[in-house]
Design brief:
121 residues, mainly alpha, elongated
Length: 121
């Protein structure tokens, strides 16, 4: 395709390559979603979950204080029919929390490290 553009001033092979690549990527994404499953609750309440995680880490909540905060926030923010699944997602995120997962939370690596040290006590 690049040779056709440079040597023949013909962009059609480049367009064909782009379309082929785009359609292949779409098919791969569809297959990935089908294999992994779609967690509607995780997507629907993403902003609430991230806010909750941020507050837990920024306020250095651990143990009972953390669990009580999570329960009270979930009761206020999440409809009862979705609450158990939401709580499962929150606790999973907290269990797996590391430096690679802080994007979008609005916290610094140092703030995360401070919280992680408290969780290890």
């Amino acid at each position: 395709a690049m040779i056709a553009v440079y040597e023949l001033q013909d962009v059609r092979p480049m367009v064909d390559l782009y379309i082929f690549s785009y359609l292949r990527t779409c098919a791969m994404y569809d297959s990935t979603i089908k294999a992994m499953g779609f967690d509607e609750i995780r997507v629907r309440y993403r902003s609430q979950r991230r806010s909750l995680l941020r507050e837990i880490i920024l306020n250095n909540l651990v143990g009972t204080a953390m669990n009580e905060y999570i329960s009270s926030q979930a009761n206020q923010l999440i409809p009862e029919k979705d609450r158990n699944e939401f709580l499962g997602d929150v606790f999973e995120d907290l269990k797996e929390m590391d430096i690679n997962r802080i994007a979008g939370l609005g916290i610094t690596p140092d703030q995360l490290e401070s919280w992680l040290l408290l969780t290890r006590r």
